[in-house]
Amino acid sequence: MEFAINAGNITKTFGNRTVLDGIDLKIPKGEIFGLLGPSGAGKTTLIKILTGQLRADGGISSINGKSSTALTGDDHRRFGIMMDDFGIYERMNCYENLKIFARIYGIDDSCIKTALEKVGLWKSAKTPAKKLSKGMKGRLRLARAFMTDPDILFLDEPTSGLDPTAADEIHKIILSDKAKGKTIFLTTHTMTEAEKLCGHVALLNEGKIVEYGTPAEICRRYDHCRKFRIHMRDGSDLELPHTTDSAVQISELIGSGRMETIHTTEPDLETVFMELTGKELSA
Amino acid sequence: MRNIKAIFLKQLSDTLKNKMVLLQFLMFPVVVIVMENSVDLEGMPEHFFVKLFAVMFVGMAPLTSMSSMIAEEKEKNTLRVLMMSNVKPAEYLAGVGAYVFLMCMAGTAVFAVVGGYEGKELAVFIGAMTAGILLSMITGAVIGIWSKDQMTATSITYPVMIVFSFVPMLSMFNDTIKKAAQIVYSQQISEIINCIGTADIKPVSIVVLAAELAAVMMMFAYVYRRRGLE
User: Fold this and answer.
1) Which end of chain B has fewer CB atoms at under 10 Å, N or C?
2) Contacts B6 to A, Cβ<8 Å
3) Which DSSP state fits B191?
4) Total domains, chain A
């Protein structure tokens, strides 16, 4: 299998704080990979190391077989990066914002139209960035990452702070790029986003990958987290673990006629993360 | 070279929409045209306003525009995007610097025309203005690089700008200030401009300008090494 992104034993510390501690990743070409973790888990730091913006203290990483520390301008053109905190030139319009980067990359202006059309901003091409909504600004950042038609996309919290409709539009764009064979490295703290988009995910906590696999695999591994949710006739709710003792208790409740409904809840990535770390993913 | 050109054109496009920076470049050239054509007092030295405002322009426009442009890009994280698009710090500074320099030289051309300088006088005027603009630009870049955001940059820039812009004017009225101002480069620019057509440039002016250029270059190197561009 060909890997687009490779990382081996990446470590990084800032002062006394270990941000990344022995990160190993192999991301196959053409996959959407999701790195999940709460704010401050080290997701952005890892993207910076992978894309050569930051030097790791230890370990090796490569993109398309080339070391992250040896990436050149031509290599940078082959991957698009969208970081949550990336700035936009507020006084300039959407077209002018992308024009700067078309000049830097030495690409034709037709790419600007293609990128703006792709994210649904072509009709707002002449709108100053300061007049765009938060969702539109997110799409403009995304358009900037798409401009060079890169093989690999690094998207750092691409839907952070967006309403569900705007987030859904971005999801569609990401999935359409995946269909074209592009590799997408996505960081998020939204488990539904990861479950919807990603082939494989890694759960990052305090600089360590605490779980790795497909969302379904991971959830299966934590099947013991499955629970019974019981709604009682008196309006109260009861949650019981998936155990033999619970079965006995449920049997008694059925016999007494106090139970109105019962259903089982499958563990999702949020539940798994809670089980592993005791923390909420969206914290 | 492509990246420098891209930064230059970006700055041109952005500044046309940035009234605060645009004002820095236009204010003194416009004011000098108005004043030279509307005020003519008895006993006033020839082209008094050209000499006065040219020095204020040197002390203000390059310094404030450089510091505010760099600080704004740092604060709004656009500089980071440029760095990640493979624009090297030196290319960014060259692009922004080239833009500020050309805008200031356009202003200098206005002063030169209004002042009626020709031949050797014109060369001396342009030379003095160029030296002053470069010194102010590097000082502005030092402040911009040092500052984390625009507010910090503004709070440092304004006192520095007031010293470089207004000290030469104040030294006209007070001998103590004039003596103290000898170490300020804008005072030396003022003295060179005031010598044009009447006396030779004093060697001390060249020495002060060279020493201050060396000093701000060292400060630039120190600050850049400490803070970098991000």
Assistant:
1) N
2) 100, 103-104
3) H
4) 2
A173 is in which domain, residue-wise? 3-214
Contact A91 B18 (CB under 8 A): yes
Residues of A in Cβ contact (< 8 Å) with B86: 72-73, 76-77, 104
**Closest residue, chain A, to B88 (C-alpha):** A73
- Report pLDDT digits (tens) over B164-200: 888 878 877 777 877 777 788 888 888 888 888 777 7
- The CA distance from A161 to A77, in Å, is 28
The answer to the question of residue A283 being in a domain is no
Assign residue A74 the CATH number of its domain: 3.40.50.300
Contact status, residue A269 vs residue A200, Cβ threshold 8 Å: no
φ, ψ at B205 (rounded to 5°): -65, -45
Residue B154 has pLDDT above 70, yes or no: yes
Same domain, A125 and A235: no
Mean pLDDT computed over B199-206? 79
Structure tokens at A143: 């358009």
The dihedral sign for the CA sequence B102, B103, B106, B111: negative
pLDDT recorded at residue A266 = 67
Residue range B77-107, pLDDT digits in tens: 898 888 877 788 889 999 999 999 999 999 9
Residue length, chain A? 283
Amino acid sitting at position B227: R
Helices and strands (DSSP H and E) totals, chain B? 10, 0
